[in-house]
Amino acid sequence: MKPVHGLLMAFLLVGVWILMDHLRAPRVHLETVRSMPAVRQVAPAAAPPVSPVSTASIRPVVVGKINLNTASLQDLIELPRVGEKLAQRILDHRPYHSLQDLDAVKGIGEKMLHALEPLVTF
């Protein structure tokens, strides 16, 4: 027997073994799923206890809403997805009265407006 024939025979045996294993796997039937008990809603777990470590030195990136008409360049840069150039364009297009006014700034699209909406005020 040539070595190639032995290799082909090994592949054939592995293929048959995989097919047989697949055929033996249990199947989930619609009737089985319907007869299963309904899943109960579990109450959320209580909040973990607060760590005694002091976090006074940690400053959050954005606290509350940022007023686009009075914010500094650095305040605008701290907004998500806003870099230095975009922050400068936001400053250049002041004053703003609504999100539609902010939409006129180059680089701000629908997704950006959606991300900024809960973080800004006018």
How would you describe this structure to a colleague?
InterPro entries: Endo/Exo/Phosphatase_dom_1, Hlx-hairpin-Hlx_DNA-bd_motif, RuvA_2-like. This is Competence protein ComEA. Residues 74-93, 100-119 form the Helix-hairpin-helix DNA-binding motif class domain. The protein folds into two domains: 3-33; 66-121, Orthogonal Bundle (DNA polymerase, domain 1), CATH 1.10.150. Helices cover 43% and strands 3% of the residues. The protein has six helices and two strands; from the N terminus they run ααβααααβ. It is elongated, with a radius of gyration of 30 Å.
Radius of gyration using CA atoms only:
30 Å
- Major β-sheet annotation: 2 strands, parallel
CATH class bucket of the largest domain = Mainly Alpha
Secondary-structure-based class equals mainly alpha
Q: What order do the helices and strands follow?
A: HHEHHHHE
Gap from first CA to last CA:
84 Å
- The counted number of beta strands is 2
In helices, the fraction of residues equals 40-55%
Q: Return the CATH topology of the largest domain.
A: DNA polymerase, domain 1
In the sheet with the most strands, the strands line up as: 1-2
User: How confident is the prediction overall: mean pLDDT?
Assistant: 77
| Low-pLDDT residue spans | none
**CATH-assigned homologous superfamily of the largest domain:** Photosystem II 12 kDa extrinsic protein
* β-sheet strand percentage: under 5%
What number of domains?
2
- Number of discrete helical segments: 6
